[in-house]
Design brief:
With about 220 residues, the protein is of the alpha/beta class. About 35% of the residues lie in helices and about 20% in strands. Helix 2 links the parallel strand 2 (about 30-35) and strand 3. Helix 1 (about 15-20) packs parallel to helix 6 and helix 3 runs parallel beside helix 4 (about 95-100). The longest helix is centred in the C-terminal third of the chain and has 25 residues, at about 160-185. About 35% of the residues are buried.
Length: about 220
C-alpha cells in the first residue's frame, strides 16, 4: 500500500478528491498525513477523514530554507512513499526537493510546458489560447518544469473567464492526479525512470519499503 503525504495552502479540493478515492478499499494508496503552510481551510478535509495533519506556517520562519527544514522534519516523521503538492502555493527549497526526489508530484492547471507559474489560467486567457489543459508533473527545482507524468487538453470556450475556465480544468486535474497516484502505487508508473535523463538508468527506487508503523 502506497503511503501519501499531501501538502496544501488553500481549500484542498484536489485533496478532497484524493481522500474520496483513497477511501475505497480497492484503491492502492492511503493518505497518512496532510500538511499546510498556513491555517488552510482544506485541513478540515483531513479532520473529516480522521487523517493527522500539521502546519508549518511560512511566515513564522526567517527564510524559505528554514521553513523547508521544518517541513522536511515533519514529513520524515511519517516517511511517506509519495508527496503530493495539492495547491501548495510555495516553491519547495532545493534541499527538500533533493531529499525526496523523485517522490514529489504536483498538479498544474495548464498543458505544460505552456503557461507555467501561479496564474496559468489567467495567462492562457490573456494569450488568446484556444485550448489549455491540466498536467501532473514530478517536482524539480524549477517552476512547473519537472517531467510530465500525465496531461490532458481542455478547450477554451467563447465567453470563458478565469473562473469558468478553471472550474472546467479542476475535474480533469483531479482525475489525472488520482490516476497517477494509482499507477505509482501499482508500479505501472516508475517515477525514477520518468525523471531520469534520456539514455541513463535511474538508480533511485520508485518507492522505498513502506513503513509498517506511523505515529
Amino acid at each position: 500500500m502506497l503511503t501519501v503525504a499531501v501538502l496544501i495552502s488553500g481549500t484542498g479540493s484536489n485533496l478532497r478528491a484524493l481522500l474520496d478515492a483513497a477511501d475505497d478499499p480497492a484503491y492502492p494508496a492511503r493518505i497518512v498525513v496532510v500538511g499546510a503552510d498556513r491555517d488552510a481551510d482544506g485541513l478540515e478535509h483531513a479532520e473529516a477523514f480522521g487523517i493527522p495533519s500539521f502546519t508549518v506556517p511560512y511566515a513564522a520562519y526567517p527564510s524559505r530554507e528554514a521553513w523547508g527544514a521544518e517541513l522536511d522534519a515533519q514529513l520524515r516523521v511519517w516517511n511517506p512513499d509519495l508527496i503530493v503538492l495539492s495547491g501548495l502555493m510555495r516553491l519547495l527549497p532545493p534541499a527538500v526537493v533533493h531529499a525526496w526526489a523523485p517522490r514529489i508530484v504536483n498538479t498544474h492547471p495548464a498543458y505544460l510546458p505552456d503557461f507555467p507559474g501561479a496564474h496559468a489560467v489567467r495567462d492562457a486567457l490573456a494569450a488568446g489560447a484556444q485550448q489549455t489543459g491540466a498536467s501532473v508533473i514530478v517536482v524539480d527545482d524549477g517552476v512547473d518544469s519537472g517531467p510530465i507524468l500525465a496531461q490532458e487538453r481542455v478547450p477554451v470556450l467563447p465567453g470563458d473567464d478565469e473562473h469558468t475556465l478553471h472550474e472546467r480544468i479542476k475535474p480533469v486535474e483531479r482525475r489525472l492526479l488520482i490516476d497517477v497516484v494509482r499507477r505509482v502505487a501499482t508500479g505501472e508508473l516508475d517515477l525514477a525512470a520518468a525523471s531520469a535523463p534520456a539514455g541513463t538508468t535511474p538508480d533511485v527506487p520508485v518507492r522505498p519499503a513502506a513503513s509498517t508503523t506511523h505515529p
